[in-house]
Amino acid sequence: MLYFLDITQARCPMTLVRTKLKLSQIDDGDLLDVQLLEGEPFDSVLRLVQQKGHRVKEIRKEREYYHVLIRKQSSVSSGTES
């Protein structure tokens, strides 16, 4: 299933808090499309995804926003996205 999260109006650390919360609410294997601004929000979300073992499937820019498409991985999964 695909979920969407717009954090363009949020400031750090709320960008991370909202992303972590949404990831905790979806099932393993689901996709989360996070819309955010470049700079600290973008960098922080990418770090979070890497630290938690999730996978970035796609990064795209639309106008002034970025979309980061994340596949939620289980905490025990260590495989790579194909």
Describe the structure.
The chain is an alpha+beta fold and 82 residues long. It has a single domain (2-71), classed as TusA-like domain (Translation Initiation Factor IF3, 2-Layer Sandwich). 30% of the residues lie in helices and 32% in strands. The chain is built from two helices and four strands. A four-stranded mixed β-sheet has the order 1-2-4-3, covered by helices on one side. Strand 3 (55-62) and strand 4 form a beta hairpin. Helix 1 packs parallel to helix 2.
Provide a brief overview of the structure.
This protein is an alpha+beta fold. It has one domain (2-71): TusA-like domain (Translation Initiation Factor IF3), CATH 3.30.110.40.
Provide the domain count.
1
* CATH topology-level fold name: Translation Initiation Factor IF3
Helix content: 25-40%
Radius of gyration, in Å, reads 12 Å
Keywords:
82 residues, 30% helix, 4 strands, disordered C terminus, 2 helices, Translation Initiation Factor IF3, alpha+beta
